[in-house]
Amino acid sequence: MKFLSQNVHKIAIETKSFDLVMEAQFNNTYRLYFNSEGLLTESFHNGRDCIYKINYFYNHQAVLISVTCSKLHNYELCSTSEFTYDSKGRIKIETVRHFSFNSNLIWTEQHIHTYNENKEIINILGLYNKDDEFMIYKTYDINHNLIESLTYRNIDEIISWKKNKYNFNGELIRCIILDDKKELIDVLNYYRFKDGLKSVYLRKSKIFNKVSEYHYTIDEMGNWTNKIHIYNGEPRFVTNRTTEYRDI
Fold first, then answer.
1. Cys bridge to 212: 37, 121, 193, 203, which one at CB 3.0-4.6 A?
2. Quick one: DSSP state of residue 25?
């Protein structure tokens, strides 16, 4: 399971708010580390109160078999994920366990993957306690684009429903959001504009008066290095992304 080309060693991403009040409460910084084979081996994510470390473990065939997340300062375990695969090397079941303080188990999720010729369907079954069960059904196309996401609580109570549409290039162009009664909440339309090493990603709400713009700067390797989020004409966040490449 390769995440990037083998010449990428490290990616560091930092997001800051243009609002000084929000900046004091906002921290979205993380770093990703890759080995010489292009496999993601560990990452560090800044939370509000601590830094989280995620480790990725592979077998001898470079297949991801487990992931662990813990707090960096005291190594307290937060979650684990374990993967099993079918005969074609596709994920069959992902089991996720979430833990609380002192590593007590809170809830468990099972992500069950099924496949046909053109789609991948993921059924996420979660259990907080014996009286509160949730289910998420996600359908992906052959290019791993999310087509539909449907969330239930206790089998028959719909919480949310989302449908996506893509163009011939696999780019998201429309998202339809429905409520628990399957009534329309919003329609989001997406547009992309490119000009050399600059790229603009525009999201417009059809029902609400909302327009989000994402302005990207791209490096010569095709990876973005800077992203500015503009909401209704007002800059909200800026994200800087640094990629370190290996000498080849």
1. 203
2. H
- Give a yes or no: residue 236 inside a domain: no
CATH of the domain at 175: 2.40.128
What's the pTM?
0.78
Nearest Cα to Cα of residue 53 among 28, 79, 23: 79
List, in sequence order, every residue forming a beta bridge with 202; answer none if it has no partner: 191, 213
Residue 112 in domain:
yes
Residue 89 lies in a domain: yes
Closest CA to 202 of 233, 240, 177: 233
Counted domains in the chain: 1
Query: Does residue 42 have a pLDDT over 70?
Result: yes
Q: What pLDDT does residue 1 have?
A: 47
Question: Are 41 and 2 in contact, with CB atoms under 8 Å apart?
Answer: no
233: left (phi over 0), alpha (psi -120 to 50) or beta: left
Cβ neighbourhood burial of 161 (10 Å; 0-12, 13-18, 19+): buried
Residue 171 domain boundaries: 76-182
pLDDT at res. 56: 97
Judge whether residue 177 has pLDDT over 50: yes
